[in-house]
Amino acid sequence: MNVFINKRIPEIGISMLEKEGIHIIFPEKEDLSYEEWLQYCRNADAVLNVGNTFTYDKTFFEECPNIKMIALYSVGFDHVDIQEADRRKIPVGNTPDVLSKATSDTAFLLMQSVARRAGYNFQKVKDGNWETFDPMDALGQELYGKTLGIFGLGRIGFEMAKKSQRAFDMKIIYHNHHRNQQAEKELNAAYVSFDELAGNSDVLSIHASFSPEQKDLFNHSVFEKMRSGAIFINTARGGFHNQKDLYAAIVSGQIWGAGLDVTNPEPMSQDDPLLQLSTVCVLPHIGSATMEARNGMARVAAENIIAFSKREKLPYCANPEVYS
Fold first, then answer.
1. Which residues form the D-isomer specific 2-hydroxyacid dehydrogenase catalytic domain (predicted)?
2. Are the beta carbons of 287 and 103 closer than 8 angstroms?
3. 199-250 pLDDT, tens digit each
4. Does domain 100-282 have CATH number 3.40.50.720?
5. Taking the model in full, what pTM does it have?
6. Which architecture, in CATH terms, is 2-97+290-323?
7. Which positions are catalytic?
């Protein structure tokens, strides 16, 4: 079985595949054009995809008829046409669970960084602009007892809620497609409508899976409903928010600020006016960037490929309906 891996992953995943006699194809360079990427995929039975550079759509499946399985080095699978994969009986594996704590840590970090203007104040130190004490300069806000609203209370959202409640005694509200009974029982989380989530959250944090119909879901009309002191956090997908509307909402005082680990577009321009605001903190999509999480992702991706090579069901499958 030939598996094309478009970028290097931690050694634990490579070793697991090699131990099972699976042949790994690495590209001569990682910065591939679309046509170069397709050529590698045409020569493989399966793909282990690292990053979201290209889309696994109908065109891809037509161009690469030998591909029988896709393993993703991510939880999200919005860059895969799942319906087309289902139609062709191609299982798609992802890497849930292993990065939930790391990604929620990033959301928790962003929430505090925005509340206390950490990035802005760190830049002042680097610029040598550490002035004498001014009791009214660049004041932040405290999070104790405030309301955390979570859009998409799954594994990552649950970890974010748990941290926020334990550290700051925050109240938890959430909006999901389905009720989260565990969160309601363990965290006393309250299920609310989308409009209630926007209007009642002091911090609104996105942890949902992204789909095309949710593009720019968080736009001017939503920011207008939020509290003037609200903090907007997005560690899911940049497509969820309209970046120009987000900037306008902060500048106008509709909301307090934003913490982003994903941007729209991504990567964002270094000239983006958001970066000039003192209540904005932006990170370069590092949600899962810990040794523990990335090793876990490599292990899970390898487990999916090995299971497929043995004609077994993928243990972590984004489209389990493919087996029905």
1. 5-319
2. yes
3. 999 999 999 999 999 999 999 999 999 999 999 999 999 999 999 999 999 9
4. yes
5. 0.94
6. 3-Layer(aba) Sandwich (3.40)
7. 237, 266, 285
